[in-house]
């Protein structure tokens, strides 16, 4: 069974058909790109996958379970985490606390546990700190654990966003333009990090990206959207040499 199965997905905003009849399937552990020109509907797809928008048509299944109609926090608990096009960290919190915040969604304390700070509370706190530190190590951020997020260099802030999303132990990780604003060195490092994340956490990754070097370097399969519709799909070599795709990017 595929981890993510999207069938005939569509959404309209008033008269605008932002996404139309999109079908995609991603196997467990896949690293797949969703690309297309500005305004093609890519972020709208992420917003439907995460319950921010309710699709007008079609189906979304995670490991066979229906996601349509579920709230964003429910979808997150079911195993879908995302990052955003613009950095959305808590700038005045430490790097470690930013990752712990991601985990808080998963760990449930009873009222008594949190008020009384009983043993089980401390045990859960300790486990959360350990898991967060382990994630920071994978991202090479462990030495910055106590640094304020806003004091990290830009490339590390973007990495921290991915670290925080990963803290919720997702099965499916959605990355919205992870390399946006990065210089080539930072992008190269990010590519290594994404490869490592997949290997260490066996997570399935769908990413939106305009940087074709990154897309070609790490994605095994691509879906190309244009005006909300699927224009092409296949391996990066095939898709990026497809004249229809080149034309969509360059315009007429
Ligand atoms: N809430 C909304 N209400 C109305 N229109 C919307 C809404 N959300 C998205 N759209 C429209 O849907 C279309 C697709 O937008 P979307 O942001 O998904 O594109 P994109 O492919 O992610 O673009 P980019 O690469 O520039 O981020 C655009 O025309 C956008 O204006």
UniProtKB/TrEMBL annotation:
The keyword Ion transport does not apply. GO terms for biological process: D-alanine transmembrane transport; L-alanine transport; L-isoleucine import across plasma membrane; L-valine import across plasma membrane. Residues 4-252 form the ABC transporter domain. Keywords: ATP-binding, Nucleotide-binding, Transport. One of its GO terms (molecular function) is ATP hydrolysis activity. One of its GO terms (cellular component) is plasma membrane. SMART domains: AAA (SM00382). It comes from the Bacteria. The keyword Transport applies. This is ABC transporter ATP-binding protein. It comes from Gallintestinimicrobium propionicum.
